[in-house]
Inverse folding.
């Protein structure tokens, strides 16, 4: 049997998804530009030692990020992985708060305690940023379980990578989600690599839709380099999940243009392969499509990009000027008891009422 996506082959461009009205189409483009510019600056800040810990960029994957966020209602839930700056930005979290989180500042979306991998925004139902590969899958199903239990019409979108489909949590969660008919969409961002291992070397089954189907979860594949196609596919999945109360998997075929994280010699792929995929860059391609359709002109598109750069400049300024957490707050927020959050070095440790 032929391998569906042989290593290095750029999938042929399928028919693009429908373009929404002018305001929405322009907003999708502007948000992809914001995510791209934000991550470029985050990378620069990392090399200037302004950002500690890990930094995973999703440059190249913006169509999946924005397509996912624009398939959801405000009342839906979104949970992602450690590659999640864009998900927070697309969900509406202030870029200054996301940058400040990377900088470890008190004004960050997690008070500077989480860093790049743990962006979080409850007000926008963006439930993180998770560092453990596959760790977010059962938690995403948990959000869907609470929606199902309460009988409301919220859907959870749970983002994971191709590598995460090899984790035990993938099989365990999809099985239960199918049995319990949970309103959850598993969005597999298939960028073809788990760190430095290509999908052909890390997964016996490379057709990830089939992997879901084997567990009772129906799925479909989309062109993750095309924001309109991705939004349409995820939107359809979300609405079926909402109406029929059942899990669905969407496999978005995409590619990351940068290394896995900041220190990656990228020995596992060729420069030619990266360049080939860059021809499918979702931002210039969507820009060209909008120009061809008369939705924006070249100057208008350049203006959107300038606005994205200005937003990121302001975010960096905000993060730079924000205070560092006080050293004595080091243990704050470590655990909670009786609704109060305590640090284990608290001078007045809470008493467990049961003890
Ligand atoms: C349980 C666990 N094992 C290993 C790691 C180390 N690790 C971090 S990212 C990664 C690759 C995951 O690849 P994928 O799920 O495809 O996501 P991508 O990085 O491509 O977005 C690994 C193995 C981890 N964070 N957690």
């Amino acid at each position: 049997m032929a391998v569906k996506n042989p290593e290095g082959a750029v999938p042929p461009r399928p028919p693009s998804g429908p373009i929404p009205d002018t305001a929405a189409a322009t907003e999708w483009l502007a948000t992809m530009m914001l995510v791209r510019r934000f991550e470029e600056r985050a990378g620069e800040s990392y090399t200037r030692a302004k950002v500690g810990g890990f930094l995973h960029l999703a440059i190249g994957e913006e169509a999946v990020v924005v397509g996912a966020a624009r398939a959801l209602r405000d009342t839906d839930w979104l949970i992602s992985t450690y590659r999640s700056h864009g998900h927070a930005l697309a969900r509406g979290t202030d870029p200054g708060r996301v940058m400040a989180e990377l900088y470890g500042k008190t004004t960050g979306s997690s008070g500077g305690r989480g860093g790049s991998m743990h962006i979080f925004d409850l007000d926008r139902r963006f439930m993180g940023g998770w560092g453990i590969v596959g760790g977010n899958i059962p938690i995403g199903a948990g959000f869907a379980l609470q929606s199902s239990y309460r009988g409301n019409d919220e859907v959870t979108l749970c983002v994971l990578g191709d590598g995460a489909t090899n984790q035990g949590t993938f099989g365990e969660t999809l099985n239960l989600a199918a049995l319990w008919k949970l309103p959850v969409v598993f969005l597999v961002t298939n960028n073809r690599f788990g760190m430095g291992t290509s999908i052909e070397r890390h997964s016996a089954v490379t057709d990830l839709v089939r992997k879901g189907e084997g567990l009772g979860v129906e799925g479909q594949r989309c062109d993750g380099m095309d924001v309109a196609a991705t939004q349409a596919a995820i939107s359809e999945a979300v609405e079926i999940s909402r109406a029929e109360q059942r899990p669905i998997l969407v496999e978005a075929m995409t590619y990351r243009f940068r290394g896995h994280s900041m220190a990656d010699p990228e020995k596992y792929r060729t420069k030619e392969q990266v360049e080939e995929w860059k021809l499918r860059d979702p931002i210039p391609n969507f820009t060209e499509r909008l120009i061809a359709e008369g939705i924006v002109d070249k100057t208008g598109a350049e203006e959107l990009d300038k606005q994205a750069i200005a937003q990121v400049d302001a975010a960096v300024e905000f993060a730079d000027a924000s205070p560092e957490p006080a050293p004595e707050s080091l243990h704050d927020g470590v655990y909670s008891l009786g609704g109060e959050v305590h640090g284990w070095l608290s001078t007045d440790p809470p008493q467990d009422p049961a003890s």
